[in-house]
Amino acid sequence: MKTIRILSVLTLLLFFFAAPAHSQCKAFAKKEVLPVLSPYTHDGNYHAAILVEGEEAELYKTFYSDMEYRVTVIGEGKLPAVEFKILDENKNVLYSNKEHNYAKTWDFKLESSKQLKLVVRVAPFNKPGDIPASGCVAIMFGFKVKK
Length: 147
What we know:
This protein is α+β, with helices and mostly antiparallel strands.
């Protein structure tokens, strides 16, 4: 019984500390990343997470043929470079922003519909003994509406 109470209290504490961080991260995405999608139309989804230097996150998304897309990945200013790669189902790298001076966006069009994997990694930057920086990394997708 005592263990259940402790777990319940820990769960509540985690919720109260995680909810504001998620909310701040979403606000960062709306303020800093959404404008960078222009002139593309935002797909309506906000993908954002608090990442620590050296940490990696993955996201899968389906893209449809003959549509123009923009992917935008931006980390908070206190973070070192944020690398993102787009991989196909065979793990072939379609794009790596590391090869393009850590560009924040990539515009593309696919010949056939595919589910792609986006891998985001915050570069390790700290010196030995330093506390690693952490911050929000936001990922947004946009598409061009055909006229």
